[in-house]
User: Fold this.
Amino acid sequence: MKKIHTDIIQFRGDHFQFGFMQGKLLKDSMILENRTKEWGIKRARFLIDVEEAEAMFGKFAPAIWDEFLGLQAALGIPMQEVLRDFGGYRIDALPSGCSIATGEDFLVRNYDFHPQTYEGRYMVYQPTDGGYAVIGPSSRIMGRMDGMNEKGLTLGYNFIHRKKPGDGFVCYMISRIILETCATVEEAVEVLTRIPHRGSFSYVVFDASGETFIVEASPRSVDVRKSSACTNHFEIHQQENRNYLKDSYARLTAIEEQKGRNDSAYKTFRLFNDTNKGVFSKLYKSWAGTIHTSAYFPKEKKAWFALGGDQEPMEFDFKGWLDGKPIAKQQIAGEIDTEIGFAHIDKIRL
Assistant:
């Protein structure tokens, strides 16, 4: 078992200030060293068009561009490198797993991925220059793996495939854009249908109304359906699915078979986080092991979070934080059944 942690980072201020603060934290970090090493291998065949990226962010989330400027100012590197490492536009997202279920007043999500990609940052940010406050774990610093905003809109995504990528945003940046700019599931669905998608993912959106929509998005099509559970395959455009989906269907079956016995948030959390109930995954070497379990409560504005399996969740009072009460704890601790290194605490060997 490997002991790991996630840092809790709280900030109120404009996007430039937020980016500058994050750049200062990153400057001498293991995360930046590992990201630089990772992209060094791909540098010769990877090019970012800065003007194109700025225009796209200007269309969907202009304030986030100011955050890039703050990050650049703190790190002292060219904007092309900022966008390459943290931008989330025309970058390839790696394969992953993930499972999501919703109930009457909650969303529970397992984030399944490779440990080397995990950066151990749980962000609570309230912008002062436009956009909604958001709580949730980060991906590639600027993006969000899952989260909830001050209006109660909650989102998580599930990987489908990497075939035939398009010119667009990747999953974790789409999540950030949706959570900062949309107040309801209807608004989220509208943006998801018109934003350009780099890869193929399902986005599960849920809010205080109790409505759940699953948006099946690829560079070629976007479809919307209603369901309370989602894993790693499309139900509408099944021709987009990967050939091997045994694990995805097995996790979905485990969720659906126990749905009647898991009508409470805590029971659903246990279904997802307990390592012996068929949803939690230990496929870390296959880029699909469960690293964290999140739960969000739109009506109460509360969030739960746990690292690794068989854990009790740490609870966050997001409403209290929005009212000005800071979160006292600085870290979340956990254990993962793997020897693979994590991007924020281990020097990664590629």
